[in-house]
Fold this protein.
Amino acid sequence: MASYDDLMSLSVRRGFLWPAADLYGGFAGFYDYGHNGVLLRRRWEDLWIETFLGLGEHYHLIDSTTILPEAPLKASGHVDHFTDLLVACTRCGETYRADHLLEAATHEEHEGLTPEDADAKIRALNVRCTKCKGDLGPARPFNMMFPLAVGPSGKDRAYLRPETAQGVYLNFKREFEALRRRLPLGLAIVGRAYRNEISPRQGTYRMREFIQAELQIFMDPEAFGDQVAYASVADVPVRVAWAAEKNEPSAHDVPARDLVARGLPSWYAYHLVEVQRFYLDRLGVPRDAFRFAELDERERAFYNKVHFDVQVRQESLGGFKEVGGVHYRTDHDLAGHAAMSRERLSVTVGPKALVPHVLELSFGVDRNVWALLDLGFRPGERNVLRLPPRLAPVTVGVFPLVNKDGLPERAAAIHRDFRRRFTSTYDESGAIGRRYTRMDEIGTPFCVTVDHETLEGKGVTVRERDSQRQIRVEEAALAPTLERLVFDGVPFADLA
Ligand code: GAP
């Protein structure tokens, strides 16, 4: 198990990520990615796109500007409701998020408090400024959007987008027409979002600039249940923590059909199963480290009717932490934009006219990358990062056993050939053990070593990161073997 400091040290040492502008002491809530971090992040995004756009025939990736004018964000409710509760110390002026102060005092979550609730709890628990022990002033809502003044006059108010979702809603009508008026229609954006968080903390967990991967599924809630393969997943157990149990480290396995019996739409339960499959089967998250956490009426976002967070247990962050969410946003957004823009956003599909409802599958990319590092990194005698082979920044390391007798030339030729298919790295410096160690630490799943037997036509060795086992593979079979291991998910033990 890795602590937060272990992971940050690995991230900085091995080119994953670090605080932005750290040359100048850092910039709270902002992080930069290095060469391995960008590769890991991109591979996670590619897998996400492949998985979730694969859920529907008419699901596509689009893009939008990151600066949005004020009117759509007024219509969506963000100008008036996208707030967290801020409290300031009356003596030194230090500012805090009210629920974070209470969480630190009680080790429980306190989302969805009114200012009055927060004040009452702060008084009851005698919570004081953690810096100077001064009295805390009254809690007040603080809008988390970054405002901008666009143009030289500064009269056109705008904001950095607080979620990618609004970029999709603004483009729904155009895409609905371009995609020949079909529902369900899925539109996804993978891109940056910005929030002026009161207290950015825990590395990439609470950032002020971060990346979201969000799929908005536009649908008719009365027809959608028949358009997904719910019957095929009805018996699949879904890991759930009910709203009242969120502060416990536990979860139940609840068959999807029982969730429906409790009142969730069948299409909602179906998508919980698909999201769970992404985490367990594709990302390799252990079952007991994954769960959906239900949010009750007070806790869920102002636009949601049904809201379960996706949580992954991360020792570096102290337990189960949100990495995504499954949100039933109803027609809240399209109806709001129709009213504000005075454009018709209702559509006619078959005999029925409706404003489509939205099921949103929303994920924070940075939080998911951190979760992979947390679950994968085992510091110790061998510092190993156990990433799923497909997600590892470097897929294969190629080494000559020794730096003579023509072995470097032969290994370099294999590496050059690999570069067309995999992310390959060539390393001839230092003892072979040290080269394996360097690869283990960045999660490289396989290493190929050229030795004297290679020169006799007896193939190369392929070493697996996790078991450290080695097999001999003929050179002609090398690339297809690696392809099976990396892209088809064939276990190394099967080949060994
Ligand atoms: N469009 C819906 C939406 O934005 P959200 O729960 O506010 O919902 C979605 O955000 C996801 O974005 C979260 O589950 C989380 O993974 C990520 N996220 C939100 N705020 C973040 C922050 N300050 N830093 C890093 N990731 C964040």
In short: Residues 303 and 329 are 6 Å apart (CA to CA). DSSP finds 17 helices and 26 strands in the chain.
